[in-house]
Amino acid sequence: MDLIIKGGTVVSPYGRKQTDVMVDKGKIVAVGDASGFQAGRVVDATGKMVIPGGIDTHVHIESPYMGRFGGDDYYTASVAAAIGGTTTFIDFVKPSEGHTPMELAQKRISMAEERGAVVDFSFHIVLNKAAPEVLGAIKEMVAFGTPSFKMYTTTTKDGDIYALMEEIKKQGGLAFIHSENAGIIDYKVAQALSEGKTDYIYQALTRPNIVEQEAIQRMALFATKLGAAVFIAHVSTHEGAEICQAAKKKGLPVYAETCPHYLLFTEDKLRDAENGLLYIQSPPLRKEEDIDALWKALKNRSIHVTSTDHSSFPRFEKAMDLKRDENGNYIPEFNKVTNGVPGIEMRLPTLINGVSEGKLTWEELVYVNSYGAAKIFGFYPDKGLIEAGADADIVLVDPDKEVSITNAMLHMKVDYTVYEGLQYKGWPVMTIQKGVILAENGAFVGPKGHGKFIRRKLDPTILKTSDWS
After folding, report:
1. 184: exposed, middle or buried (C-beta count within 10 Å: 0-12, 13-18, 19+)?
2. Which of 23, 99, 152, 193 measures 20 to 30 Å from 297, CA to CA?
3. Is the per-residue pLDDT at 469 higher than 80?
4. How high is the pLDDT of residue 254?
């Protein structure tokens, strides 16, 4: 064998067992007693939890936005991902006038390969209109291995979304929706600005829970009437979680993700005149009741996936359009702050700490960290479980390791972290991707360019019912 992991507690979504894992040529050969076998390296995992590598289904890397470029490239972001226990991520291919989705996808793949991405990656295709050429490209992109398609209710008309969803369903794809009601947002933002209310907290107050609730309900209704599957991006509200729970009870293929920042922080972070801008993203942070509901939705598997929505804008890019007062301090204008939070390294650690606090079991963590994403987005059976025949994407977790978070200890290329000062118990201490050790004890030790583009094919059962979960 190339590698044997001995004596750890191997966890699946449905149980755990203290045993060994045998790895050869990038694949898991067997899970069981490795006595009598030899390997190039034997890792003693005694006292460690051995879990599948994490899958982050929603990241933004090297994706310019209004003149902002972010600090990370595909190499640095993937290094941070690996150290944080993520072995696969899905980024986006955005539309560009005069270029086909295929051309743009191939360009993004080449970019990730040239930069030297160290973990596996795939892409969602962003669609913004139901033009004939766009509808015609959906079949091609499904066949190419990028069968998930993102749409924004804030920028794309309902008729276009409906038509796109109809074609996506026909071609065996999955609609991936950013769900907010643009009309309510526009009204609330205009009202706040007319009253001179520009503090950062108005990012939340102009996007009340109904903004997300109504849009999720509308998208779920579209999908149900079309007989299509839908995936709801970054659920942040208890109402959104309740819609997902209701769909799950009916067995409908309505899937969802939430993000670490929605599991930790309330909108009170936006009241900080100095640092509130760092927490601005859309949807905004919510209240304690929303945080509690999201943890419960992860626990009952009505929210199936966790992602980071990683956007690594440094402080100066977050504040690029803000003016300063006579003392050099930024003047808060919530509507001019660049949206996005860096977090690709902090997803699994946040879930581990949730286990330490009794909010999840280890089995539930595996489901929302790996297995749910692998099943829904077409990575399974190569990824998502530690079982014979799967890719050897494996993370060792020390459940007792205590960590005080500082930006200096993290590896994302940005000059702050919203997790600064938090105390976590439990931490990923080794990340293995296709049998190669990428990270060990907080340091990257793997080869540049180890990651590969993964072509995905969706399971038809996933697109028809959520009863599998």
Report:
1. middle
2. 152
3. no
4. 98
Q: How far apart are CA 295 and CA 423, in angstroms?
A: 18
Reply yes or no on whether the pLDDT at 225 is more than 80: yes
255, β-bridge pairs: 231
Q: Which residue has the tokens 């402080």?
A: 315
What is the distance between the alpha carbons of residues 58 and 381, in angstroms, rounded to a whole number?
20
> Cis link prior to 147 (omega < 30° from 0)?
no
Sort 338 into a burial class: Cβ within 10 Å, 0-12 / 13-18 / 19+.
Answer: buried
Rounded Cα gap, residues 177 and 197, in angstroms: 30
Rounded to whole angstroms, the Cα distance separating 204 from 284 reads 5
* Cα–Cα distance, 423 to 80 (Å, whole number): 19
Per-residue tokens: 257: 């993700």
Q: Which of 124, 112, 186, 119 is nearest to 150 (CA)?
A: 124
Classify residue 370 as exposed, middle or buried by CB count within 10 Å of its CB (0-12, 13-18, 19+): buried
Q: Please, are residues 257 and 231 in contact by the beta-carbon 8 Å criterion? A: yes
Confidence of residue 41 (pLDDT cuts 50, 70, 90): very high
Please tell me the predicted confidence (pLDDT) of residue 315: 97
Which of these, 423, 368, 365, lies nearest to 397 by C-alpha position? 365
Concatenating the DSSP letter of every residue in 341-366 gives B--TTSHHHHHHHHHHTTSS-HHHHH
